[in-house]
Amino acid sequence: MTEFAADRLLLFGATGDLSRRKLLPSLCALDADGLLPENLAIIGTARSELNDSEFRNMAREALEEFLPAERRGSMAQFLNRLSYQQLDASTIEGFDALAAKVADAGTRKDDEDGGLAIFLSTAPSLFGPTIAGLQHAGLTGERVRMCLEKPLGTDLESSCAINDAVAAAFPEDRIFRIDHYLGKETVQNLLALRFANILFEPIWNSNVIEHVQITVAETVGLEGRVTFYDDAGALRDMVQNHMLQLLALVAMEPPTSFDATAVRDEKVKVLRALRKAAANETVTGQYRSGAVEGKVVPGYDEELGKQSDTETFTAIKAHVDNWRWKGVPFYLRTGKRLPERVTEILIQFRCVPHSIFEGAGTGLKPNKLLIGIQPEEDITLSLMAKVPGLDEDGVRLREVPLKIAMPDAFAEKQRRIAYERLLLDLIKGDQTLFVRRDEVEAQWHWIDAIRAEWEANGVTPKTYGAGTWGPSAAIALTERDGVSWHE
């Protein structure tokens, strides 16, 4: 792999929603903290006809809307990094002008000193033409790396087609596939929790852990993503990427080092060990009108303006068939228009093998570890403790939470946008928190099998009221195993 720090960053889709909400604010915050290379130039490109000044004005408005004032630093300094080149990526015309703009933006004249990082956020249908245009314009050389934003296909076949198109111009060690969940502090802290603390790893297995729950709940509905979401659904939008990455981090074996190859080797082993989900191990749902956070909201069919069989909720009982996790179910749950916005991982430990505190009122419960990812970043370990006092009937126990709120534990650290970490790693060339091709394909292989099962059995989503935790079948999925969802 060619090691280099990029001195130019090319943003495709630079006038779009992702750029305005996440990318430009993340880059500005990094600049304010002095973390961007001093000479880094940022070139935006999109279909919109803007000049440099107009693009900077658009960026300023986005920063004022989406980035807190205390994190902007010298906004003028950041805006001076920006330039813009209009481009219709569906045609080859225009890529030569883009290449000229990129060359002019570089402050280093010696190609051995700098390089180009490209962030590609575009419709899947434009991946092929964009790569062809970049090749035509000479923007795929050894000192160019490519970052891909999802969606990367709708199934294994389309994902392979996209990856083949990119691989025709870039080797795997210069391809950075983003899953923004991997940029979240608490997700990265999961690795630290497991592999930097000796007390957890010896018990992180089927001997001590009864089950794992992963929940990604949203209160929002379609939010302007009508066409994309109705083609995707909850399984492809959330489970295929974010949730399977979380599962892999929970279940992976200890890597030999915190190195991109070592970490991703262990994740892909987990994904390949996923057992095909049986028909009775999945639930699908679609929300109807109801109330969320005290407001009346329409149903999915009303928002969409037509009937649809797309799932807005899914729950899955997954199994990792290896020595460490044999017999431990992983319950996955995600959906829109649920009662609260929360992403969390629950590690439920087994009961003690023999209790010396038998008797009425002891209140003995198994330990659990709750890892909150959003909106709050915290880790809570629930332990049993004696209730103070003198009791004639014996010792009374109560569950006591040991909670670490990450913002409190590290009060001097600012809460960052997940893309900050990932953009910085892209510029520097660190692939550890990015997804490798074999991971993506293992994820799609498992997801495609579920969708094939649904189609073969004519599965359609069960309805649930907005503001509830999904259809009743999702509750039955866990309760027939004697388990309740954490809420």
The rough form would be described as: globular
Strand content bin: 15-25%
Largest sheet: 9 strands, mixed
Spans of 5+ residues with little confidence (pLDDT < 50)? none
What's the β-strand tally? 17
Q: Using only CA atoms, what is the Rg?
A: 24 Å
CATH class of the largest domain: Alpha Beta
Distance between the termini: 46 Å
CATH superfamily of the largest domain: Dihydrodipicolinate Reductase, domain 2
Count of all domains: 2
How confident overall, as mean pLDDT?
Answer: 90
- How are strands sequenced across the largest beta sheet? 16-15-14-13-7-12-11-8-17
Oligomeric category: single chain
CATH architecture group name of the largest domain: 2-Layer Sandwich
Please report the number of helical segments: 14
Helix and strand content put the structural class at: alpha/beta
Structural description of this entry:
This protein is an alpha/beta fold. The protein folds into two domains: 8-177, NAD(P)-binding Rossmann-like Domain (Rossmann fold, 3-Layer(aba) Sandwich), CATH 3.40.50; 182-417 and 438-479, Dihydrodipicolinate Reductase, domain 2 (2-Layer Sandwich). It is 34% helix and 21% strand. The protein is built from 14 helices and 17 strands. Strands 16-15-14-13-7-12-11-8-17 form a nine-stranded mixed sheet, sandwiched between helices. β5, α6 and β6 form a beta-alpha-beta unit. The radius of gyration is 24 Å and the shape is globular. The model has no long low-confidence stretch (mean pLDDT 90).
